[in-house]
Every structure is written in C-alpha cells, then in structure tokens.
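Exercise (ungraded).
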Amino acid sequence: MDYETLKLVWWLLIGVLLVGFAIMDGHDMGMGVLLPFVGRNDLERRAVINTVAPHWDGNQVWFITAGGAIFAAWPMVYATAFSGFYWAMMAALWALFFRPVGFDYRSKIQNPTWRSTWDWGLFIGGAVPPIIFGVAFGNLLQGVPFHFDDILMSTYSGSFWQLLNPFALLAGVVSLGMITFQGANYLMMRTEGDIYRRTHTASLIFGALTFVTFALAGWWVAKGIDGYVITSAIDPNGLPDPLAKTVATAAGAWMTNYHTYVWAKWVPIAAFAALAAGILFARLDKAGLAFWSSSVACAGIIGTAGVSMFPFVMPSSSDPRSSLTVYDAVSSHLTLGLMLGATVIFMPLIIFYTSWAYKVMWGKVTTDYIAANDKSVY
Amino acid sequence: MLTEELVDLSRLQFAATALYHFLFVPLTLGLAFILVIMELTYVITDRPIYKDMVRFWGKLFGINFALGVTTGITMEFQFGTNWAYYSHYVGDIFGAPLAIEGLMAFFLESTFIGLFFFGWDRLNKWKHFMVTVLMAVGSNLSALWILIANGWMQDPVGATFSFVTMRMEMSDFWAIVFNPTAQAKFVHTVSAGYVTASLFVLGISSYYLLKGRDLDFARRSFRIAAGFGFASALSVIVLGDESGYTVSESQKTKMAAIEAMWETEPAPAAFTVFAVPNEKAERNDYQLQIPYALGLIGTRSLTKTMPGIKEIKERNRARIENGIQAVVALEQLRRNHDDKVALAQFDAHKADLGFGLLLKKYLVDVSQATPEIIQQAVDDTIPRVAPLFWSFRFMVALGFLFLVLFTLALFYSVKGTFIEKKWLLRWALWFIPMPWIAAELGWVVAEYGRQPWTIYGVLPTHISVSNLTPANIYGSLAGFIGFYTVLLIVEMYLMTKYARQGPASLGTGKYHNEKAAGGALPAGAPAHRI
C-alpha cells in the first residue's frame, strides 16, 4: 500500500478508535455521570454500577489503545498535544484514577460515607474526561498556540486558562451530552423499575442537549471561526516534515470540505439524524434502538470534527506552518503498514470476544439480585 | 531552554510513578497463573474448596489489579506529557509495541477479568477456566510488549535515523521483537512476578496456619504456592543470569558500573562481592572478590575480557569527538536537505550522533566544545556506581534467599510436615514484602543503569523531556504524591482487611468466624440474571 493511502487509512483508523472509545467507554462513563442521580439508595446505585461491572475495564482499553495508536501512528500529535495540554491531561488522568478503584473498592466496605464518596468519584471519572476531550477538540478547531524549533521540539506558548474559551467549553458540553446520552440509553437496556424511569428521563434530556449544542457549535464553526488552509504544494507521499509547508487562516475554511467532497455532508447529517432517532426511540422505550442510534451519533459527531479539519489534525494558531496534518505528523511507511496489519488481525478478534462477554452477562440487573449476591458483585 | 532542574524533575516524576506502578504489576503477573493452577485443580477434582481458593485469592488479585490499571494509565500519558521530544524522536519505533500491547494483550486481559469475577454463575466450569487462562495469558503478553519496548531502550536494534523527519525510524520490526535484551528481560521480569505472587500466597497461608484457622484451605494454598514459587525462584536466578549475559553484550557500561569494575581485568574477571566504590578516584576503597566468577557469567567463556569503566570512558571519548562531526553535519542538513557535503560527513559519523548530542547538555553549538566540556560528557556516560553496585547485590541476595525459602517450603510440603515448622511459616509471613523490594531494585538497576540515556547510545535523557517550566512539574508531582499516597493507604487497608478475614469474605458459611449457616448468605444464591 502506498504511503499516501496509509496516511489516509490511519486518519480513518484513529477516528474509528476514538469512536470505539466514545461508544464503549462512553456508555460506562455516562453511567458514572448519571449514577448519583438515577440511584437513590445503595442498592439502586449498586444495580446501576453492576450493569457495567464486568465490562468497564475492557471498555477502558479502547481509550488506552486509542492513545497507543496515536503514539505509534501520529507521534508528533501525541507529543505536541499531550505536552501542550499538560494540565488538561493531568486533570483527565487524575479523574480517570477514580474509576478502577471506585468500581472495585466501593462495595468492599459497608460504610455509607465510604460508598457515597466513591459514587462521586465515579461521577468525576465519568464526567471530567469527556468534558476535557470535548474542550480539547474545541481548541483543535480554533488552532492551538505551539511551534516547532529547528530540531522539531515543540513548545506550547499558551496558558491553561485560555483553553477554557467559550467555544471550547461549548464543545465540552457537546461531548459530555453525547457520552451521557450514550450512558443513559445503555442503562435503559440493563435496568428496570424506578432506575429505568429515571434514566429514561435522563436520556431525553441529554439527547436534546446534545442535539441543540451540536447544532450551535456547527453554526459557530461555520460563521465565527477561522479555519486553516495549506497554501503551498504538498507531496502526500513525501517524508513527514511539518515545517516544509505554509499555512494560512481563512474565514469559513472549515466548511470547504463539505463543498469539495459530496459525501462529507452526510457525516453531520448522520449525527443529527441519529440524535433525533435516539431521542425518539428513547421516548418510545425502544432502549436497544436508542443505544444504537446514540452510538451512530458518537461516530457522526466525532466524524464531523475530523472531516471539517481534514487534512489538519492539530493546527497551530501562533505559527501556522507548524500545524500538524495527516500527511506530515505521521510515522514511517513501515510503521504505519505494520500497525495496520496488527489492527486488521486483532480488531475483529476484540470485537468478537467483547460481544461474547456482553452476551454472557446480558440481562436486567435488579436490586433483588444485588441483595442476594452481596459478596460477589460490586 | 531545557534546564537541569526541568530534566531532574521530569526524571523524578517518571521514576516515582513507574516504581509505584511496578508495586502492582508483579503480583498481577504471578497471581493470575496461580489462579489458573487452582482453577485447573478445581475443574479436574470438582472439589468446591478449590473454587473457594480461586475466588478468595481472586478477590485479593482484584484489589491489587485496580491500582495496577489506575497507575498504568499514568505511564501511557507521561511519555506524551513529560517526554514529548522522546515521543517524537522514537515514537515511530516505541509507539508500536505499546499500541500492539493494547490490541493484543490488554484488551484480552481486561475483557476476561470481568468474566472472571462476574461470570461464575453464567459459565460452566470449563468455560470459566478458559476465561481465567485468557486473563493470565493477556496479562503476561502485556508484559511481553512493554518489555520489548523497554528492551529497545536498552539495546536499540532495527532502527535508523532520518535527518528529514529528525527522528529514529523503524527498519526491522522482527529485530525489535526478537531483541535478545527484550526477551531476557521478559522472562526475568515475569519470573520475578511469579515469585512475588507465590510468596504472597505462601505468606498469607502461613498466617492462617500460625493462627490455626482455615487449615484445609491454607494447607492447599501453601502447597501450590510452594511448588510454583520454587520453579519461579529457580528460573528468576537462571534467567537473571541470562539477563546479565545480554547486558554484558549490549551494555558493557551498565555491567562495569554494577560491578564497580574500574579497570579492564584479565579474563575471566573476578566477581566483587563487597566494595566501597570511590567515584572521584575511580577505584574501590575496599573490596572482596570471587575469582573468575564474573567473567563466566558475563561472557560465558574463560578467555573473553570485559571492559572496565576507564576503558569504556576512553572509547566514549572517541565516540563523542566523532559525534560532534555528526551533529554539525546534521545541523547543516536541517537547514538544507540537499547539502551533499554535509550528507557525506553525516553518513560517515552518524553512528555516533547520540554521543555528540550528549554535549547539548552543556552548549548549543557543539563544535565549540572544549576539552573540559568533553571530559564532563565523558564522565556523564558512566552512571553513578555505588547505587547500582548495591541495588544489584541486594536484589541478587534476595533472589537466593527466595530460592532457599521455597526449597524448604517445597521440601516440607512434600514431607507433609510444614504445619509444624513454625519458623518456616513465620519466615514466609515476614518475607512477604521482600519480592517487591527486589523487583524495585531490579527496576533501578535497569533504568538508572542506562543513564545518561533514555535510548542507549541514541538519545540522551536531557533532550528527551517536554519543553515545560519546572513549576508545571512541581505541581503535577505534588498531585501524584497526594493521589498515590491516599490510594496506597486505601489499597493496603483493604488488602489487609480481606487477607485477615480470609476465605470467610466469600460468605459461603464454611470458614473461620462464620456461623455454620444462617448468618451468611447461602452459597448457591438464586441465579438471577445480572
């Protein structure tokens, strides 16, 4: 496979891994966001937690693998984004700390304060990472102040607080809404009674919130944010060197792809349609269909951000030619090919045994079951 | 500007979080296989006590595993957050094993650990056993890929430098996978994990035996741990030797520092048991040696010599001088990719590029290096001797003590008299922390011993960091210390609580301090769907 094709395939694959993360880890993070509100007593909360008990760890690997794949396929993006967004990354990391220990330790001691503390820990571990990743995407769309020196060492020249600008915060809300909608639809499939009724309401609220904020963000990108364009010739098959090009900002540039490629507009259309369908199915108590719809919505929303910026991945606002694109932020031809081979072999296996694990554990989790299996469930 | 303060803080944070993460890894690696052995016994004999053993030791496994996962994410983040130039410079090679680890191993382990804990009522015993096996295989494969990545840092094979992309690029994936350093590290590390877990089970079982409670349960656990531990302790020493062998091939520097061997000695070199290394005078003030031993371990021959520190320094001086040419040519090539003269000069000297970069710690334009600066860089190429010398010796001494302990434990297990040997039970109990100490010392030898490099001979540590201000790292380091302290207290509390409670924590009604029936829930609680 030639280098250009591999570069494009990896843009797609990173997208697939991020969507996989949003669908899989998203539904247990969404569970965490809703936990303190849809579970009103200890048994109810345990029922909610145990809907994801056998799966959260496997789901979290989508996140870890997406990180590892960015490291392997886009090392410059990994290096520049993680060091540039230093405090945001630390906050996401520390929030994630609450999940493994929250799940495993919460019910090991029968003290209400202990348990309630971990419940809020799971809330933080569910809510903070999606907000931060949304804020990060919001900043990518606006460009990030960083530059490379002559040995390609990156320096971030902004502050932490400027990452929290209004558009980025809006993107954070879109992300949180999307993940919580996903979590609510999942919980509808796996719970009954009072918990089900509360998650049903939550699904409608967060579905609507995501729809409205996503539309608002789209309008903002079209009207109020300058996109980036490459102004020099680039060789898509060339060795990756970000400093070899020139880049300029232009009003409405993030809309260009929707004019250039006919298929591109179907990505945001799919996002809106899936959000609408998800809300409708939730309204009709079709939990399974609602979950699949919100999963498609995750793909549509993340895809919209990716397609709008293509071929940019991380534009630089302070030194536009340092911007990272799918052509010049990538690994070598050999590494991209090798990693594609590994993905093609292992991804179907992962999907197969993950599906099997869900099938084995499927069914409604009831408070009666929790009470009867006090020592063996979370 | 990358100040020394920034570099030291970044190193401190990485070392602290890696050592902390490695508190949880060895137990996971080993206990997973002990669970496999126990469950295999259960599926073959059908005796419920073995199922209880899997479930109880599995509970402790879970408490430990939760923190292993928590602290593992830190490691993945940190390459990007704090070692950005490293990530750029070697991500093309180093990222691949990490990503493959996720795809091949971590997904496997993490998906099946869920079924291991919650699938007892949903799976027949053979299917559940298969789940446990896959979990154990996943965790050990995970270690394999991580150590392939780490082995490459020690011995960077299968890669070449590209001046256009300004980084190392992969040229031979299989050379990286089958890197002898990586393979030796893998078997040594997982064996150490098996020893850790065996001693954990042996020690806690001894505690029950000393207290005269849960005797049947503890006796069986003790026997399994003694057998598995004996094999592991033996292999950790034999394969540790293998690790020494490869170290001496690819990293003679680390070996010389570990051995405080200042002069090149006639073959076969003596093994220094005790010494007081004097870094300034480049000699040992006192020493006690076993003739021939080191030469045999290090070179597997009676005639090959092993270079001493002074000889290595002189070789490195030549490489640094050579490396200056490479750096100068590279800087010209960065300005003009088509500079043929610079390219020829670069190609002639590029094998020593990393050594030239060592000077970047002291000056921007390395062609201005004075003999004094070069001397400083030469001295930098040898890690400090005393910490390595002593870490290594404590680790090895502990390794032999484990072998003695497990030999005795196995011997008395076979004789069936171990319950009467109170001294043995007490030894096992009080020795529980020791494998952790040995494992951490091993990490120090491997990683501190590689200094001043992140990638040996290729990338110096001081240009590997992210270009941040020290204030950032002080802040994050404080955060890590805070979180990790609280988490460690919580983990130790739960671990102790459940270990003391013993199999009664399963609530089957059959164990110490449980009312025969009634109080606890019946074993076969209604199988509602969860």
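Further reading is listed at the end of the chapter. For now, observe: The two ends of chain A are 48 Å apart (CA to CA). Chain A has a mean pLDDT of 96.
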